[in-house]
Amino acid sequence: MENGRIANSALKAATEYSAAWGPSKGRLNHQTSYLAKANNLGQWIQVDFGNVAKVTKIGTQGRYNVGQWVTKYTVSYSIDGGYFQYQLHKPYSVPREYFANKDYQSVAVVTLDEPIIARYIRIHPIAWHSHIGLRIELYGCYSGFTTPKPPTCAAPLGMQNNQIPDSALRASTSYNVNSMGPRNGRLHFQAKSGQYGAWAVSANNEFQYFEVNFGDWTQVTKVATQGRQDGAWWVKSYSLAYSYDGVFFEDYKEDDQVKVFVGNSDQYSVVTHTLKNPIIARYIRIKPKTWNGYISLRVEVYGCRQGFTPPEIKCREPLGIESGKIPSASIIASSQYNQYYGPERGRLRTEPEGSYGGGWAAKYNDVKQFIQFDFGKVVKVTSVATQGRSDANWMVTSYTLAYSLDAGSFTPYGDGDGQVFTGNNLYRNEPVGNIIDPPIIARFIQIRVKTWKSHIALRAEFYGCTEGTVKPTACLEALGMQNGKIPDSAITASTEYNAQGSASNGRLHSGINYGAWLAQKNDVYQYLQVNFGDWTKVTRVAIQGRMDSDQWVKSFSLSYGYDPVFFTVYQEDGSKKVSHVKFKYNL
């Protein structure tokens, strides 16, 4: 340092007061000095020896001819310039603190408790007089020792050096997306014009997270955090979650328990944790648990992008709703708010386009509403993700699923009326994923609304696989009422209210005329009859009430025959079977 053998380009600092007081001015006994821009615990000066060196002593001075100096500091070091570790005070496992100067001119030399073998070394001031001013020299040798191997899979993955682009950073919320957005959440980020010194949330709660997208499979071995550089906000504890697709996240665990990491105790210090079980993923989330002031973070993630075997992901591919592979004609709904919020807007991550809205929205807010997807062929569905409307706080908070091979009769997924899945309860733009286990094998799936917030609106994607799926052989095909294969002439009734309520209107999902078959009288002698034209096996019956009015059948029985004269009453367990209908519709 003093003799200039270490080039100016090998010297760096967290901040500098100005170019005239940069790290290159921080050489022992020179009539200059390094000056930090701010007096806080986030400052450091770094020396790159060019090769691995053994450091045994450190000498320091204050600012030349001015009463500004460092009184105490810690030391960190690195083999590769990526991951830095502090020299620790054993046996306490805390950074070793060294006393420095008592005036600006005298040289304070300390002998390190243990020599440091590294290529990079940093001096971190933790106490000072008037202002952080520093001149340094390091003592040791370049040979005569065994060079340690660089840590495997522990390189910084690109937060601090910006190799991870701003577009790959997301967060649950931001205090201000422009001045305190995710792009500010990089380790050692410094406040500047229009930018505060960290990412911060818009509200303090346990649902907040900071997300990094690595772009491809990546192994993560360490995580480092800081608080807000220009304010007393930091995260005191956090957990991690990871994902390959950015929708379905798994909590990081150690010993079968969700691991909660100790975070920061001030706004400047870097706290690093090594993962007992390295994470292999494309996305990682830091999920704050406790905090000081406001949830605020700066982050670096360490690991590698090769040299490991990614896990095999089976039958979890998007099935084409978001991508547009499934055409708009294959997406229908019970109703739509208007022409700008049709079912074709119900694709995951759809955003407003001109007059067209950011999602499908129903015309009515009731439990009759659904959106239906036709995958074009029988597929295996293993998971589903939903969002609310992107441009308004409308969302579905819970729903059930139903499926069909032919769009005729739909089977609720799960027991009874169907398993209830959690939708979007907090953030309308946050994809909420649910695993479907056992998987659904079908061509058509409906999302049936159970509860909602403000107004029913939805965007969705299903995941699974399209190849190698065997169509179920059960006798469950729709026989032709809805699709018109059964002609009007084959549908008759005991009576008809009028021509607008004829028997031929009694097709599932029919919306013509009065929207249903209407009997002329209300008595138990009324019936609707279907002629299949030949012997047919019937395994399931689906009914709805009148589409355009609150009129429906609450219970019914069945009878059957080969000719239109002699009919047999359908029985179960030796008695006439009466089926009860809970609602006026059956989707």
UniProtKB/TrEMBL annotation:
Q: Residue ranges of the F5/8 type C domain?
A: 1-141, 153-304, 315-465, 475-587
By its UniProt entry, which InterPro entries does this protein fall under? FA58C, Galactose-bd-like_sf
A Pfam family name for this chain? F5_F8_type_C
- SUPFAM superfamilies found in the cross-reference section: Galactose-binding domain-like
Instruction: Give the domain of life.
Output: Eukaryota
Q: What is this protein called?
A: F5/8 type C domain-containing protein
**Source organism of this protein record:** Desmophyllum pertusum
Q: Lineage in the entry?
A: Eukaryota, Metazoa, Cnidaria, Anthozoa, Hexacorallia
